[in-house]
Every structure is written in C-alpha cells, then in structure tokens.
Amino acid sequence: MNLQDVLPRIHWLGHDSFRIDGSKVVYFDPYELSTAVPADMIFISHEHFDHCSPSDVDRIRKDSTVIVTDQASAKKLSGDVRVVRPGDRLEVNGVDVEVLPAYNTTKKFHPKTAGMLAFVVTLDGVRYYHAGDTDFIEEMEGLEVDVAFLPVSGKYVMDADEAVLAARAIRPKVAIPMHYGAIVGSREDAERFQKALEGQVPVVILEKE
C-alpha cells in the first residue's frame, strides 16, 4: 500500500465520520455533514445519534446505496439496509466486509451485549478498520489492516493512551485518530496519540472537511 496514493482518498468529516473516495464512495458514521457526495455504501456502527443520523444518511443516499449496520440502527433507516452482527462477513458490490465488535470494558456506554459494530472494509485492495465506539479490546489483536481509524478522546471511548496500546496491537500501516473535536475530545488528544507512537506506527491527523 502506497500511503501517498491512499491518504488523498480519505476524508475526515468530523467526529467518527469518514468518506473514502475509491472505486466506490464509502462512508462511515455520517454525522453533521458539510458536503453531500452521494454514497455507494454507508457503514453505521451503532444507534447513538452521533453515529446513526438518518437526516445525514438521507442526504447522501441514492436508490442504489447499500447501508450496513446493526438491528437497532436499521429501525431508524430506510433504503437497502443490511443488518449484520459481529462475526459476520459479506461482500457487497465487490467490497469485502468483516464485521467486528465494538464495546467498552471499563465504561457502561457501549456494552458488549448491545452488539455494536466495528468494520474491516476492503476497498481497492486496501483494508480499512473503523473501530467504532470502543475501548482497547482483545478482538483488535492481530488484525491485519492497512488503515485503522481509532477513537482517542476518552470518556465514552478509549483515550489516547489506550489507543496507543490498540495501535501497537494492530500495527496498521497508518493510524488515523477520530472521536474528537465534537461532543468530547480535542486535537490535543490526537496529537498525544501521534507523539506516543513516533517511530512505531505512522499516525496521520487529518483536517476536518
């Protein structure tokens, strides 16, 4: 994977929201979007309002858009919605999808029993891991991914120090911090994450679009 080719395709839209412009336009957790590029696929990690935003989904959804999410979120959405659970694997329009869990280990906001989601999406030969709202969990160990989107803000998710442990366990070709700058967390959390991983895992802090 050539980072110079891949990074320009990745757009951080704030909080946990990303858009990847590849052979398919893929979104993760669209929320408070400032632009509305039509989506081929939308991945939604769980039902909380800052991740499952039906109004934002409707702004980018086409008739052919496929939405992949959990049962709780699916109840709020319309269109071609595919309900999945941790452990599922599927292929949609040539895009390989592995569904993983996302949960807290020391907090009550995202219990494992709720079945909230993370995703490994293989698009154009690049494996993207969107960790969802999570702490550092055992399911991260040994993941073979190129790009890892990891929360860093603490309180509801893992903080920067815990995210460092996650990045060391995953060893992606690049880690991109998320879950800051809206609701909770700041750029300082992302910078602390980046500094702690110098010489170990490349970290790119994206500017919000």
UniProtKB/TrEMBL annotation:
One Pfam family matching this protein: Lactamase_B_3
Can you give the residue ranges of the Metallo-beta-lactamase domain? 14-179
- UniProt xrefs under SUPFAM superfamilies: Metallo-hydrolase/oxidoreductase
Show the PANTHER family listed in the entry: METALLO-BETA-LACTAMASE DOMAIN-CONTAINING PROTEIN, UPF0173 METAL-DEPENDENT HYDROLASE MJ1163-RELATED
Its protein name is L-ascorbate metabolism protein UlaG, beta-lactamase superfamily
